[in-house]
Amino acid sequence: MNTPIQQEISSLIRLRMAAHDAHYAGGLVDGAHMLHLFGDVATELLIRSDGDEGLFVAYDDVQFLAPVHAGDYIEATGRIVSIGKTSRKMVFEARKVIVPAGMAGQPSAADVLAEPIVVCKASGTCVVPASCQRIAHQPVRC
Length: 142
What we know:
- The protein has 142 residues and is mainly beta.
- The chain has a single domain, classed as Thiol Ester Dehydrase, Chain A (Roll).
- 13% of the residues lie in helices and 47% in strands.
- The protein has one helix and eight strands, in the order ββββαββββ.
């Protein structure tokens, strides 16, 4: 049985999608790249919560909501929402925060978006074997 956590554990990474990240015509980045980012976020969350990288065992929901292109800056966040004996339930979100400006004669121009665009949401479960947990968790009492 999973228990809500007392102190929120969260992670944020931000990076630029490079030309080599583009998988499709028009510089489109494949959705699996967002899942790769979520995997990195999950690893940090487990290290912060348990002192061990653990294992990602399943996504139970993934929603691709907007396209991502080479040159976009993506901010991927995640947080642990509940903790079981060995399982850690997490939620993730990836947002586009900067885009290429597309100005003729100035290919390096970029724009910071006034409002980030959510490009992907997901939830999933990771496991840290009890023998690998280095940080004790106190159960939450309601």
